[in-house]
Each structure stands twice: as C-alpha cells, then as structure tokens.
Design goal:
The chain is mainly alpha-helical. 56% of the residues lie in helices and 0% in strands. It contains 8 helices and no strands. Helix 2 packs parallel to helix 4. The longest helix has 43 residues. The protein is elongated. 28% of the residues are buried.
Amino acid sequence: MARCTEEVRLGGRDDREAVMRKLVVAAMGTAALLLAPANADAKAKHTTCNDDKLVTDYSTNYHAVARLHGPRAPGRNIRKWGLSNGRKSTCGHIRRSLDTLRSLRMPVRAATLVTTGPPPQPPAGTQTVHAGGTLASIAQCESGGNPSTNTGNGFYGKYQFTQSTWQSVGGSGNPAYASEAEQDKRAAMLYAREGPGPWPVCGR
C-alpha cells in the first residue's frame, strides 16, 4: 500500500512538470509570433526593397542629413513612409534618394574642391536672377544648394518646390531638371509673392 501511494505521488509531480514545460514552450512560441512580424513590418511596411544593406545605408544617411541640415532637409523618409503618392518605394527609389542624401552630406570645404566647369549660360533674352542673401540661405538649408535634388519625396530642385508651386510661378516640367538660373528666378518670384511662407523651416 505504501509503495502504491509513493508511485501516485511521483506520478503527480511528473505530470505537473510536464504541464509546466508545455506552458513555457507555448508562451515562448506566442512571444515569437507577436514580436517577429512587428519587427519585419517596421522595416518592410512601406517599401518593397529587400536589400538590407541598401536600406540601412539609406536610413543612416537620412538621419545624418537631418542632423546636419535640419529635420526637413532630407525630405520624406521613403523607407518608412513610402512615396508621396501612397505607393511603396522600391530599391530603385531608395538608391536614387541615397545618392542625393550622400551629396547633401558632403562637407562644404570638400564641395569647393570639386570642379564642374563653367555654369551653363541661360538662353538669350532670359532674365538672370542671382540667388543671394535669404534665397541662398533657403537653398542651402533645403537641398545643400543642389539644383538637381530629387529624393522621391514630392519636393524637387534647389528650393524643394512642389510641382504645383513650381507651376504657379510659371515653371514647367520637373523643377529638378530646370537650369539653376531658372530655379533661382522662380524662387525669387515665389519669395516676392509669398515671402518665406513656402519654406516654413528654412525660411525662418
């Protein structure tokens, strides 16, 4: 009788240990299911790009430009938020944007050592507006003074025009493809019309 009681007691302990092990395994599995998709979604939610190195380089340069030139300088974070039209960004979008971000990180001292040749001459009869003072400061803040800036965030060119604003001052096509002289001219027209309002951060 004593032996039978001992077997029952040991069997009960073994059953409890087995149940505890099953509970621990189930809890760990649930935690993995809850955490893993969240991390994956955080990286891939608004981009179809699976090139981890490219995406990491983009994020590093994006945040570096924001620290150097202010939070608006790098434009829309297309890895985190996708394109401005609601579509997901691709590796091609991220690669082009990364090229622009890298150029914005180039120190001013290093930029003065780059020789690009004489500036293009505007067509005959075109009024040349030299961006100095306030407009030069705005351009430096918005794009690092780069007239071909196009990060895929809906803002283009030296002054980061939106397409509608560019058209409202007589521009046509993509502002980033217009000559620097034309961008200076359109920015001067916009500034004369609205003051620093179109550039709420860089116009202060």
